[in-house]
Every structure is written in structure tokens, then in C-alpha cells.
Amino acid sequence: MAERDQAVQRIPEILRDTGWTVVLVGEEQSGKLAQVTAGLRRGPDPSGSGKLITSGFSYWGLESTVAWAHACNDLYYPVMRESIGSFSRRLRAVADRLPAGPLHYVSLGPGTGQKDQALLRYLDRQGRTGYYIPVDVSAEMLRLGQREALEHLHVPPADVLPVQLDFSLPANLDRLSTLVRRVVGDEPVVYSLLGNTLANFDSDTQLLTLLAEKLLRPQDRFLLEVASTAGQDEQAARAAAQEYENSPRFREFVTSALMQYTDLQIDLNSLTCEGLVEDDRALLVRVVYRNRTGGTLELTLPDRSTVPFPDQDTIRLYLSRKYTREGLEKMLVDARVTKAGETHEVGHTAFDRPAFGLALLLLQGGEAAPGPVTGPNPFRD
Amino acid sequence: MSRPAGLPARLLSRLSRQFFAALTLACLLTALGICVWWVAVADDADSHFEPAASGLALVAAVTGVYAERRAAARERRAQALHALADELVKNTELLGAGFAPLDPGAPRARVHPRLVQSATDAALVSGVFSEPGHEELLTLLHRWRDGVHDFNRRLDLAELRTYVSEVPAAELLAIDEAMHRAGGRLDGLRRLRAGLEELLRRRYAEQPGVTARLDRLG
Predict the structure, then answer these.
(1) Do both A217 and A357 map to the same domain?
(2) Are residues A349 and A277 in the same domain?
(3) Is A146 among the domain residues?
(4) Do A122 and A155 reside in the same domain of the chain?
(5) Mind telling me which residue stretches traverse the membrane in this protein (chain B) (predicted)?
(6) Number of domains in chain A
(7) Residues contacting residue A375 through CB under 8 Å, at least 6 positions apart
């Protein structure tokens, strides 16, 4: 036991060699395969609500990580490139609302790490950088993101603690919360969920509620970045879907999970992006793979079992949303978080096209949901 | 403790200004008639001077005291109406664009424009509409002035509330919603403004310049 302690104590010294990174693995990875398999075993449903690759697993594994990195730099996928390119500027608009003093940073789903680098650079310039804890279900994504996030920064390797964990599970969030509090004590932490990641989850509001409830203390803040839309009609929904359809790299990324978990011969022409209006809260984009062979195919899953894939049956590969202002406000109220700062930016669109943009919100939790306003109101008789 | 006024004083107080104007004019015209008759019956040339001089003085009194005063009052009334019409145009703009509801997505404390009422105050204080026939306008101007004063005061309080300390977005929206609600203060002011415009167009349309100014409202 004493020897093991000594080995752990030597890790900072080992990390000075840039070839090494440490990752804390927080859950049994073999159990994750069962989740993927369960999603692909669902019954036939030509409408796109049957078989699916569950959120998070689109990015899980080496192929998906590489494909995602390529998609983020695709000239035909400008939304993600603009989102990354403008992040530093948008961050400055809310950064003055961050807690004063040293700040620890927990990045939920760091992606390619470029946005994390912007935030860490902002803290680094002010000498306020604390621990950097990127959290992702994919070890490959963690390593890729970490390398990008820390480039040219003065963050000691020993202050970086990547955690491989699926943060959409309540039990995992309890463990993550315990870990973070052990590491930082009572000092403030800024958590982030950037790149419209929240929109990839079916139960986005429930996930945000869970994150706020399990992670946020009154002194902590939460940076949330989501895609936004000004209009909410069929034309806007179609335009939202087209953003994804136009990018060959995105199509490769979104089918990479299917290649990884099944033996399906991928036909990129069988991929469709559907834009739908989701109540009054968002535009919903579903990327669906449809069997157009005219016959039933057999899918072999990672556990060697087979699943019939009939003609016109679908596999939902990816889910995304663009939120309306009202939908976003309602989600924040339901998740019991309040805004400490925000910036909304509309992307470059033609005057006759729907205006899509990005919202970066600095949230705080640890408070009860706002009840009815009872303060003095000069216009209430 | 004021003494009860005597019967003659009470009777006098009940007589209108028009009665005294008519009495004055009747006296002057009677005196002028006497002067004309005096000139006619005077025996010699020297005796003509006194009734002629008195007659001319009386003519000057009739035109100067009464007719000139009425003409000056008409001019002042025209100026007051022009100022009221201009003020109405300005307030119509403010009540439109100046009080747009807050963006629910990004509510912020803001300084609202104030409705102007200097022309209304001047019109009321100067007494240019004190002659008979302007009672409806006077009543409406008083209601408009009180409404604007009350609304501006509430704006002061709302801005103090939202600027002195950090106010949650929900409270900003609640104040804005209460201001804009149907049947609320802003709604009432807009109805008063519409009534004032309708009265100026209907009752004072023949007054040169009033309709032309109001037509700028579009």
C-alpha cells in the first residue's frame, strides 16, 4: 500500500515527459457496449424513432474521435467552425461574471479542446488557473482534447486530471461530484457543457437538471453553449437539417459509430437529415440511416448477436436541436438554474434565410426555483 | 372663520363674465349713441368738440377694450392649440416606439422616455380655454395631465427599483408585463391620447394649422 502511494506521488514527475497523460477511469467500459447493443435491438420503426445510437456513443471510440475532429474543420460544416472561431470573443462577454480568484475548470465533453483552451488561456493570463478536469465517455477524445486545450499554456501537468466517465448517469455524477470536491475543497469551480452537446440528448432538460443538482454549489458556475433559432417553422426546420446534410465530413462522422458497432455496409446515400419543429421550444434535427436496399439486412452487434434490419427501417445516428429563446428560458426554469451572464450571437445568414445562432450562458445553481415575483412593482395596482 | 357673504355679493358672484361684458358693451354703445345725438343737437360749432371727443374716446374703448381683447385671445388660443397638437404628435411617437416590451430572452433595466406635458400645462395655466365652449377640452386636458404625471412618477419608481440594485430577470419582466398589460396604465394613457386627438380633429378642425399638424401622425 505504501509502495502504491509512492507510485502515485511520482506521477507528476512522469508527466513532465509530454508523451504521457493520466486518465481516471470512472466506470466499467464493457458495460457501455450493452447500452449501445440495447439501442440497436429496438424494433422496426420507419419513422426514425426505433433503433438508435444513444447519445455519447456517436463520439465513443477512436474512429468516431478522428471523424469528429475532421468534421469540426470541414469547410462545408461552418456552424461548428464558426462556433469554435468565435468562442473566445463570446467568452469575454460573460467572463467578467465568473467568480473572482483562482478558478478550477471541469469540462464536460471537451470535444477537440479548442474551446477549453480559450477558457484556460483567459484564466492563465490572469494567473487564476486552478485544476483542469476534462470529463468524457471516450478516452481517445479526452487525450485529443487535452492536448489541444493545454497547448502553449502554463498549466502544470499535475494540475490536469482527465476523467473517463459517462456524465449522463446520476450515479456517475455523484462520483464525479465527490471527486471534484475532494480535489478543490470549497474553492469555486466553473463547469462547462459546450458545442450544443446538451441538444444531443433526448431528455435535455432532465440532464441539465441533473447536472445542476449534482454538481453545482452556490459558489460554482456552469457555462452552457447551445445553438439557437429565431424562427420556428417548417422552412427553418428544413434549413437546420441542411446544415448537417451539406457536410461530407459530418456524414462520415455520424456513420462512424455504425461502422464501429455493426457490420453494416454503409451507403452514405441512405443517410437523411430530418428537421422537425419540437413543440414551441426548439427545432429538432434527426440524422437517420434508412435501409433502402429493398430487402431485410442482418446486423451483427458487438456481442455477436444479430438483429434484423428490414427494408425502410431506420437507425437514428444523431440528434441535435436549435432552441428558441422561450424554449431555452423554460428549460433553465425547469432545471432550477439562473443566468449570471449571457451572450447571444446570430451567425452569418442571408436576409431571406432563417437566422440561426449560438447562445453562451453562464448559469448558477444551488437556489430554489424562482417563485412568483413579489417585489414592489409600480405598475401593479 | 370667514364671514358669510351678504346677499348683494352672493348675487354678484352668480353673474357670469359674459353678463358683465355685455353690460360694459351696452353702456359704451349707449354713451356713444348719446354722443352722436349730442353732436346732432349742439347749437354752435364750439359745442361740437366735446361730444366728438367723447365719441371718439368711446369708439376707442369699444374697439380697444373689447374687440382687441377678443382678437388677442383668439391668437393665444391658436398658439396653444398648435402647441398641443405638436405635443400630441411627440407623445404619440413615444407611446409607440418608446415603450416596446422587454425582450423576454434578455431582459435589461432601461431608462424609459418621459411623456411631455409642457404645452398641456401652459394651456391650462394660461386660461386661453376659459371661455365657454371649451369645457370638453379642458376636462380632457386635466385628465391627460394627471395621467401623464402619474405614469411618469411610476416610471421613476420602476427605474429606481431596477437601477439601484441588481434585480432578477423575472422581476424586470414582471414590472414590464404589469406596465404593458391590457387595461393597465400605459393602455389607459394610450386611450386618453386617442380621445384627445379625436377631440382636436372634431372640435378644432377649422382652426388653421391644427389638422395639418395632426396629419403628421399618419
Answers:
(1) yes
(2) no
(3) yes
(4) yes
(5) 20-39, 51-67
(6) 2
(7) B161, B167, B171, B174
Instruction: Map grid coordinates 357670469 to a residue.
Output: B16
Q: How far is CA B19 from the centre of its chain?
A: 23
Q: What is the span of the domain harbouring residue A295?
A: 36-61+233-322
pLDDT of residue A1: 46
Based on the domain organization, do A118 and A207 belong to the same domain?
yes
Q: What is the mean pLDDT of residues B158-182?
A: 88
Q: What is the pLDDT of residues A37-68, one digit of tens each?
A: 888 898 888 888 899 887 777 777 777 777 77
> Do A203 and A296 have their domain in common?
no
Same domain membership, residue A318 and residue A336 = no
Alpha helices, H only, B127-168: 135-164
Contact list, B170 vs chain A (CB under 8 Å): 370, 373
| pTM higher than 0.70 | no
Checking B103-109 for CB contacts under 8 A at 24+ apart, the result is B103/A325, B104/A325, B104/A326, B104/A329, B104/B173, B105/A325, B105/A326, B105/A328, B105/A329, B105/A344, B106/A342, B106/A344, B107/B169, B107/B172, B107/B173, B107/B176, B108/B172, B109/B159, B109/B162, B109/B163, B109/B167, B109/B172
Residue where a domain stops, chosen among A271, A290, A322? A322
More confident call, A114 vs A14 = A114
Across the interface, of B105, B161, B171, the residue whose CB is closest to A329 is B105
Write down the pLDDT at residue A373. 61
Q: What per-residue confidence (pLDDT) applies to A76?
A: 65
Q: Which of A 121-180 lie inside 8 A of B, CB atoms?
A: none
pLDDT given for residue B169 in this prediction: 80
For residue A235, what are the β-bridge partners?
Answer: none
Please check whether residues A350 and A224 belong to one and the same domain. Answer: yes
pLDDT of residue A129: 86
Intra-chain end-to-end CA distance of chain B, in Å: 57
**pLDDT digits over A116-156, tens only?**
999 999 998 888 889 999 998 888 888 888 888 888 887 88
Which residues of chain A neighbour B167 with C-beta distances below 8 Å?
Answer: 375
